[in-house]
Amino acid sequence: MARTTRKAVARRQKPAAGAKRTKRAGRARRTLVLVATRKGAWLFHGDATRKTWRADGPHFLGHIVNHVVLDPRDGRTLVAASRTGHLGPTVFRSTDFGRTWHEAARPPAFAKAPEGAKGRTVNHTFWLTPGHASEPNVWYAGTSPQGLFRSNDGGANWEPFGAVNDDPQYRAWMGSEQDGTPDGPKLHSITIDPRDPKHMYMGMSGGGVHESRDAGRSWAPIVQGLEVVEGFDSANIAFHDPHCIRICPSNPDRLYQQNHCGIYRLDRPSKEWVRVGKKMPKNVGDIGFPMVVHPRDDDTVWVFPMDGQTVWPRTSPEGKPCAYITRDGGKTWQRRDKGLPREAWWTVKRQAMNADANDPVGLYFGTTSGDLWMSRDEGEKWTPIAHHLPEIYAVETAEIG
Amino acid sequence: MKVLIPTPLRSYTGAREVEASGATVGELLSELDRRYPGLRFRMIDEQDRMRPHIRFFVNGEQTFDMARPLSPGDALQIVQALSGG
Known about the structure:
Oligomer: heterodimer
Largest interface: A-B, 24 and 25 residues
Radius of gyration of chain A: 20 Å
Structural class of chain A: mainly beta
Structural class of chain B: alpha+beta
Number of helices of chain A: 3
Strand content of chain B: 15-25%
């Protein structure tokens, strides 16, 4: 089992380029920002005011880290999805904030195919979701190609969900790897209803949005109202491409989705998504990847628009990075770009923008060019935390201390 | 027999060369995995296929056959074909 030691990590604890260092805050709760990149992971420890940050990293230098998440139930278990360019995928865990890491005994892997059949291989674990508050040590993982997995022991051993991974209908909806996104088709946005551990949602790119009410033993599509690319049949689940789905913590009957074809809202028990992105400015559009919900207000969400025209440049529209906020459930949207570059050609991936639970809410996003930005005032003004990191894949937040 | 470990896998073994035994390449990899848990899955996927960029050489001769017999005096070289940027 591969491990890294405290000594090894200590050698790595130079500040990230551009990161500001600070002394530790007192006993107040502090914000931790977990950054997964193409070349390793970083932990940014904020002070109580979130004005200065201490960089800890890189962890796993040279590894492709798709997601790092802190378990909110115990406040100390980190789980990281990792692979290298040449080695198979795995999962690492730490219970001491990254001083030591321990590899999963059984990382996510598809079931062995019967003799003569061509089985699938997990290329990388893409998404990690801690289980319900009432189920300590339960974790879920989504992979590329699309697969759903569960761990009951804090991420040490992972079991596949046959009802998704091996179901002929679901396999048809997933399509082949040729149908997926440029760096592989993905299962993502694994979402647990905070009122019911058995009630779950997940998204597949491609393959649509799905809901389970029996802890993942069975699933059903929930795509009504969602558009697909022009000329294709929206009744075919395979053509649906959700980019990021979020449930509102303050109202779990409300979900928002950044889709390949717009921004949508769903209010349960309805099963019909409503395209709220049509109210975005026409020259910006409502294409993008991240979707961020307010921790206490189900009318407030943020998106980070992307140029989805012609060949899909995947840059900010017109090279002008900006977030947009709605405070009325999508009826109106306001631009939030104060502090951001007037012209830049990076973008923000689906896992790379998130919020903390402070008041006012802190927002964080990482760019494909390796810059980490934050706002302490819900997007009114943006400031950089770090520059010149590797391409950022995911940004998560946690409260510690 | 001697097994040469490539640098990307030395976090498991802690050494560039280890001693291991097995009647076949596949058995030897299983033995290595018992001693260094997780090592095999980084090289061999869940369908028992060699991952891309992993190569095995027995006494300097490349093999793709996990059933290839081994003798106590053989040497296995595990090669990680590092490429790309």
